[in-house]
Design goal:
Blueprint lengths: L1 E9 L5 H16 L10 E6 L9 E7 L2 H9 L1 H13 E10 L1
Length: 99
């Protein structure tokens, strides 16, 4: 099994309300991939509640193998959510590991 963990830091927003709304849009878009992407075994999305930390959103997904993860990355629904993320993304960090 492969665990794919991604952390997203978003750009600055004009208000906290706008940032919260965009975070929720991204979270719901990612969670909606469950059941749409055949290779996706599990997905969890969390919004950072600690103002002392750098990243805003955490994504944790699991796949049977790296090929399945690559299929997820190329799935049209995943690409559509990725476009929403990229519009407001400042930085991203990722780790993939076998377990």
């Amino acid at each position: 099994m492969i665990k794919h963990i991604v952390l997203f830091k978003l750009k600055s927003f004009e208000s906290e309300a706008l940032k919260t709304a965009k975070q929720e849009e991204i979270k719901q878009g990612l969670l909606a991939l469950d059941g749409k992407v055949p290779s996706l075994q599990s997905i969890e999305v969390g919004l950072n509640c600690n103002p002392n930390e750098t990243f805003d959103i955490a994504l944790s997904t699991t796949f049977n193998n790296m090929d399945d993860m690559h299929a997820y990355a190329q799935h049209p629904d995943h690409l559509a959510v990725g476009k929403i993320v990229r519009e407001v993304l400042e930085s991203r960090s990722c780790v993939d590991y076998e377990f």
